[in-house]
């Protein structure tokens, strides 16, 4: 067993300015046809303050993809891009990792060097057991993400918040859930109901509003114009004294619907949850 590389524990608190009382920005998947550099710039242009990166997005046209294999120089370059744009990197995912110390260490050290707080994944108990030691040593968070229910695949269980709670409960409390509100709606689950089940273990969120409830092919719409009841979701986050980030994630246009993203940010700002 190798020794830990020790890092200063500065990831537990997000340093970005809040919008409407929340750390708010984009999941870079909203701009998945763009580069990392473009995703950072567009998030800033829309008014966001944070970004959640996803694995493999090209840093620049023709460049390498973002991930644990990056050199320290590449990671420093990404951090400099963020700093110049006024954007704080807060999370990385959805990503997998193996149930071995080498894989977990590589991902954890990458996350820490990038300055993020939370690794978003759909990994199972064996992987979480290995990652837990790095969560404790590096003061990182891990959040189990939910995609929609898969009727033809009963082995896919993380769509169900009750299962996610059961999955994470044996581990350090920094291992919890990523509340993807859109995928809950696609699964026929009211987001606030799921949030109440996972109270105290939500560490990340892909905050979405959809045009239909319980429809697998429902699509993203600006906050407040769909069926997800975003005001109630934000109120529940406030009640739970939520200390994670909110990532706007659109999945219908990989170039990024900039006006819609800006409208979502304006909606949260307009509600004015600035008590915390």
Major sheet: arrangement of strands: 1-2-3-4-5-6-7-10
Instruction: Examine the coordinates and then state which fold CATH places here, giving the name of the CATH topology.
Output: TIM Barrel
How many H/I helical runs? 9
What order do the SSEs take from the amino end to the carboxyl end, as H and E?
EHEHEHEHEHEHHEEEHEH
- Report the mean per-residue pLDDT as an integer: 94
Structural account:
- The protein has about 280 residues and is α/β, with parallel strands linked by helices.
- The chain has a single domain (about 25-270), classed as TIM Barrel (Alpha-Beta Barrel), CATH 3.20.20.
- The chain has helices at about 35-45, 70-85, 100-115, 125-140, 160-170, 180-185, 190-195, 230-240, 260-270; strands spanning about 25, 50-55, 90, 120, 140-145, 175-180, 200-205, 210, 220, 245-250.
- An 8-stranded parallel barrel has the order 1-2-3-4-5-6-7-10, surrounded by 7 helices. It has a two-stranded antiparallel ribbon with strand order 8-9.
- α5 links the parallel β5 (about 140-145) and β6 (about 175-180).
- α3 packs across α4.
- The N and C termini lie far apart (about 40 Å).
- The model is unreliable at about 1-10 (pLDDT under 50).
């Amino acid at each position: 067993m190798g020794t830990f590389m020790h890092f200063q524990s500065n990831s537990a608190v997000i340093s970005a300015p809040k919008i409407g009382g929340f750390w708010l920005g984009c999941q870079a998947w909203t701009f998945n046809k763009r580069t990392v550099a473009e995703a950072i710039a567009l998030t800033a242009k829309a008014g966001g303050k944070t970004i959640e990166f996803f694995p493999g997005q090209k840093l620049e046209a023709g460049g390498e993809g973002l991930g644990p294999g990056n050199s320290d120089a590449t990671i420093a370059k990404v951090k400099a891009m963020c700093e110049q744009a006024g954007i704080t990197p807060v999370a990385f995912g959805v990503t997998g990792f193996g149930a071995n110390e080498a894989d977990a260490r590589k991902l954890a050290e990458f996350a820490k060097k990038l300055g993020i707080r939370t690794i978003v994944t759909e990994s199972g108990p064996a992987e979480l057991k290995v990652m837990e030691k790095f969560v404790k040593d590096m003061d990182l968070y891990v959040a189990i993400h939910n995609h929609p229910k898969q009727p033809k695949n009963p082995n896919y269980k993380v769509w169900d918040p009750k299962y996610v709670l059961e999955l994470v409960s044996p581990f350090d409390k920094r291992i919890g859930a990523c509340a993807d509100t859109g995928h809950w709606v696609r699964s026929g689950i009211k987001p606030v109901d799921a949030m109440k089940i996972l109270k105290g273990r939500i560490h990340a969120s892909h905050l979405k509003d959809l045009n239909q409830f319980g429809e697998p092919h429902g699509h993203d719409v600006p906050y407040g114009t769909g069926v997800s009841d975003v005001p109630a979701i934000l109120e529940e986050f406030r009640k739970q004294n939520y200390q994670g980030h909110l990532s706007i994630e659109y999945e219908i246009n990989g170039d990024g619907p900039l006006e819609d993203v800006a409208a979502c940010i304006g909606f949260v700002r307009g509600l004015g949850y600035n008590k915390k």
